[in-house]
Design goal:
mainly alpha, about 120 residues, two-stranded antiparallel sheet, 2 strands
Length: about 120
Amino acid sequence: MGKKGKRTLVKEEKERLLAMLAEVAERTLQANMCLVDRAAYLTVTARELEVQIDVEGSTSEYNNGGGQKGDKISASAQVHSQTVKNLMSVMRQLNALAAKCTSTESDELLDFEREYGD
């Protein structure tokens, strides 16, 4: 079995999120589909960056010449940090939407926010 492409992974993540939001009214969900799309994309991107950081490490060396050299946070680690911040923002919005539009809040979204939230 080959490695799944990013589009396939994003589609699978979107389906997973939509399943968690199944109790939200269809009209409301359609109006907020951009949030679901964004959350799916950011989740897959964060996972990819985590793999890259595991392989390459979270720091990289720099040498500016003139004896200025050392370690700095890698570009992958910086992008991962920003991606996770954006993902948390989107997930909070989806959680609020689910809480407002359903009689019982989505446990998986609440668990996610508790685990990764501020």
